[in-house]
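Board notes (copied after class):
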Amino acid sequence: MNEHKLPTLGENNGTGAGLKPRKRVGAGLYVACLVAAGGLGGGVAAGATSMWNTAATASGTVQSTQVTPVIVNNTESVSAVTAAAQKASPSVVTINASSGTSGATGSGIILDASGHILTNTHVVTLDGEATNAAIEVRTSDGSVYQGTIVGTDPLSDLAIVQITAPGLVAAVLGDSGQVNVGDTAIAIGAPLGLSGTVTNGIVSAANRTIETASSDTSAVPNGSASTAQDTISINVIQTDAAINPGNSGGPLVNAKGEIIGVNVAIASAGTTSSSSAQAGNIGVGFSIPINDAKRVAQEIIATGTATHGQLGVSVRDNASGASSEFAAGAEVSSVTPDAAADKAGLKAGDVITGLGGRSVTDASELTAAAREQAAGATVKITYVRGSQEQSTDVTLGAATAG
């Protein structure tokens, strides 16, 4: 598959699916345009009342980030949330990125004693506007260190920053593949610049797919602002734990204090009249599953970049009925010669319903399922040809951000 382009009505979105004039109700949530101001970015969903927002804060929203440890005043009434927050908080940092007169604040997760920190690409690139932003990192004890960008991955919106500092506490990573709907979910980060903020909720959905703005800086001239951004499809955990601008790159934590996700986007009801404003949490937040993020992080630390699978097809949403608003798989429009799908025997007209153990109900989910795999991975793909369901193994090609 090719990478999603900024969707317009009827335009091929990179998987072959153009946005429809009417809303299609499916697991893939579509983003139609970018709203960005002062490091605070997001996208308006394909519905008049919703907006998916990335969560780097605009500088100046809060005058200075405040260091607030997890305080326990009454040890006899400590809850599971308190214990989990105490365990995870020393591994959470606040990140400030600046370029020229622009700046933004986000969060990050310490991965090891060598100072590798996992965060979002949109945090360290100011929503894709800067290629070489200056990075400062404040740890949970209030110490501030200069950071360097090890690498960014716009296809997953993940990045690695590194600092040199003593006594760093590496986060304990959980298994996002074991997450259940209804599990306790705790977000920790710096919403609105308020470092060390802890919010609590549940896992609302474990296998959601969203489309959001890419922070690819490959077309940014001389490190200055980009004039156009593509979109990316990513699989996420949905939570009602309060996530606000500034939580981006910070952890979603389970009741054991283990990291299960990297907070990446929020939904907010309605749009604002000014492009310099952005609404906050309404209980619909999204986190990149830590199992996916760990694979990307390991590749960035090792090589400076990460790889993603590509199937090599153009697809569109397959309607479950002639007038249905619901999608039922991703229908292949064309197959790229000699690409992964062609070698696996897929043909135009096939309806793909699963890839790599993930169900596929629309084009966006197919893109996300392929992208979360490493380039060269061999996975099972299920599809319907005529009225018969079939399956085969496919060795994925390599996707590019361009």
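Comment from the instructor: The chain is about 10% helix and 40% strand. Confidence is low (pLDDT under 50) at residues 1-52, 55-64, 223-228, 271-277.
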